[in-house]
Specification:
alpha+beta; 6 helices; 38% helix; 20% strand; globular
Length: 150
């Protein structure tokens, strides 16, 4: 390869990797494993579709309806899951460890969306609720300041 091409590819790769300010859990190609982050606020965990999707902060968000897509576009920061969509319990209780989630296991607390791991007999939402969620949230907020940015 020509040196100029290698330099251009290196610059492109750097910009692609480091252009977003926040770290997001984008398993299955979108935040919240492709679930509709607006629907959670109506107490529904439903998959979004590629038809109703948008990018925000360099990552994809999917929605099950055009109405929810439009709501998100009007105020995206209202709907973005806390801690980039990683397990809130793990961020708080495990010193910022980024753990995947079961998008059907969530909580809306003080107008914010929190997602949790729930597999292999471990439901971290139950642990969160049982072990002082307000203290865990404070700890998670502190930990996220360290691990949530590039």
């Amino acid at each position: 390869m020509k040196p100029q091409l290698i330099s251009l590819l290196s610059i492109f790769l750097y910009i692609s990797v480091y252009s977003q300010d926040n770290v997001y859990n984008v398993k299955k190609g979108a935040v919240a494993n492709g679930y509709d982050v607006v629907a959670y606020f109506s107490n529904m965990a439903v998959k979004g579709t590629k038809e109703f999707s948008t990018k925000y902060d360099g990552v994809s968000f999917r929605f099950y309806s055009e109405q929810n897509l439009n709501k998100f576009k009007e105020n995206p920061t209202k709907y973005i899951p806390q801690y980039g969509g990683y397990c809130a319990y793990a961020i708080g209780a495990m010193d910022g460890k980024k753990v995947g989630v079961d998008p059907k296991t969530y909580e809306i607390r003080d107008g914010k969306l929190y997602l949790f791991y729930n597999s292999w007999g471990t439901n971290t939402l139950k642990s969160w609720l049982k072990n002082n969620p307000e203290e865990l949230r404070k700890k998670a907020d502190e930990n996220w300041k360290k691990v949530g940015k590039h």
